Amino acid sequence: MISIANVTKQYKGSAKPALDNVSLEIEKGEFVFLVGASGSGKSSLMRLMLREDVPTKGAVHVLGENLIGIPSRRVPYFRRKLGVVFQDFRLLTNKTVAQNVAFSLEVIGKSQGFIQQAVPDVLRLVGLEGKENRLPTELSGGEQQRVALARAIVNKPSILLADEPTGNLDPTTSQEIMALIERINLSGTTVIMATHDRNIVDRLQKRVVELNGGVIIRDQLGAGYQKSQTGANPIIEGGFFN
Amino acid sequence: MRAGFIFKEIIQGLKRNASMVVSVVLVTFISLTFVGTASLLQLQIGQMKNYWYDRAQVAVYMCTDVSPSDTCPQGGASADLIAAVEQRLGSPTLQPYIEKFYFENHDQAYKTFQDQFEGNAVAKYVTPEQLNETFWINLKDATKSQIITESFSGVAGVEEVRDQRTYLDQIFSILNAASIAAIAIASLMLVSAALLISTTIRLSAFSRRRELGIMRLVGASNFYIQLPFILEGVVAATIGSVLAGGAVVAIVQFFVQGYLAQQLPFTSFVGLADGLLVVPILIGAGMLLAAAASGLAIRRYLKI
Questions:
Q1: Which residues of B touch A (CB under 8 A)?
Q2: I want to staple A89 with a disulfide (CB 3.0 to 4.6 A). Which of A144, A231, B105, B281 is the partner?
Q3: What's the rounded mean pLDDT across residues A121-134?
Q4: Cβ separation A80–B5 shorter than 8 A
């Protein structure tokens, strides 16, 4: 599903690579936490999976696409199979909840009939029934993130990339959002979530990939936020192919 | 839905950058008007050259009944005088310089005149007798027209000897210089139009960067993302070029036909048909320029 092999990403003007010979395999339906300090390479890794960037060295395959060689005109079609949410929600403030979700379908050329059916469905799924015509500014942070999630999953993506989706939310709201993301995962969507939220990672006990200075220092199933925690089932220590 | 969505985006973009759009419209309008005027000038030159250059290298105009008496004291040139001139043209002294010559009588001159000034008011008032009988002479070397001029000036029955080429060359070089100046100004303005269009498009893209970011994330195709911007530039430039086309037609209709043709009835001028020929070229050029400028701008500004 996702295969990252010996990937190094060196940004121009920085001495140290953002990712240093990283290898990672993620199977269909998995739930993976990416943890690590700021600047450890979590975001760089996610950018590679989204084909926002190409690595300096190594290979990236996502959903059967070789993201190094993919022609740029095919990139948009590849991205339609992925959903993305961010810490800052990235909603259009001049559009209502329903319009925000509909927008993402309009711009990929979905029919009006499909949109009229899919938008209410997905808003019901994320628990925003009755708030279709609100503007994002009239919503709480948790509700805004629900809109972002609705937008990410309305096109039924195979993979959901979440970059600190609870970073701006209080603990209770974070839990609600996590419950939603878990439901999305249970329906078969692979979830990759970068986070700093120790409580969430500890509570969910999913696969944890820890990065430090651009290197995977831990890749553990059913683990917590820190290595000292009782992560019983290590896939490998220090990266997949090393 | 797709078309509706793109249409909505264009309208929004045009509204958002109204002042920039107006400047794009004005700059394309003025620059393309210059281009159109220059093309009309070239058409005018071509029309005159076509008509004159081939036939009228050197003309020996014979006296008519209405010729001024100081050059033609004997009135209209008699058949004898005409024959004398013809004989002289065929003489061994002049023959080496002349490629061919032919004689045009009153009726032939009248017919040519009618053809050239068809639809012009002056054609109605001219009679064959008013037009000179003429020897039209093609020289082997057009620069040696002096020989003919010297040979026939002051000869009985000859009203005037005129080297049409030097006479026309003056007009053509003035017209040519004018059209080159117009084209130079037009190209400078077209460059600024192109730069303005790309600046407008970048502004437009900047003010829509949130939408664009989301469109990229959810996988809108490049074509779909870029099309509204390109069309935005094209719409603005098209308005400008339609205005320019209108201006060119107005210039032909009101200035050339309405004023110049009245003032200078003996010259044939470009007509409405020529003006209408230029209009689609202007509109095409405007649209193409805008599409290229905004396409390049948006491609540079928006990476996938």
A1: 1-2, 5, 210-211, 213-222, 224-225, 304
A2: A144
A3: 92
A4: no
CATH superfamily for A2-81+157-236 is P-loop containing nucleotide triphosphate hydrolases (3.40.50.300)
Q: Could you tell me where the beta strands, DSSP code E, fall in chain A? A: 2-9, 19-26, 31-35, 57-62, 65-66, 82-86, 159-163, 190-194, 207-212, 215-221, 233-236
Nearest CB to A107 within list B210, B218, B304: B218
Among B106, B133, B164, identify where a domain stops.
B164
pLDDT tops 90 at residue B246: yes
Domain that includes residue B294, residue range: 2-51+169-301
Tell whether B189 and B148 lie within a shared domain.
no
In chain B, residues with a C-beta closer than 8 Å to the C-beta of A50 are 217
pLDDT for res B2? 66
d(CA B189, CA B195): 10
Dist. CA B15–CA B259, nearest whole Å: 40
Query: pLDDT band at A240, cuts 50/70/90?
Result: very low
Q: Is the pLDDT of residue B188 over 80?
A: yes
Q: What is the CATH number of the domain that holds B90?
A: 3.30.70.3040
Q: Is 50 exceeded by the pLDDT of residue B75?
A: yes
What is the pLDDT, as a whole number, of residue B80? Answer: 84
Same-domain check for residues B212 and B274? yes
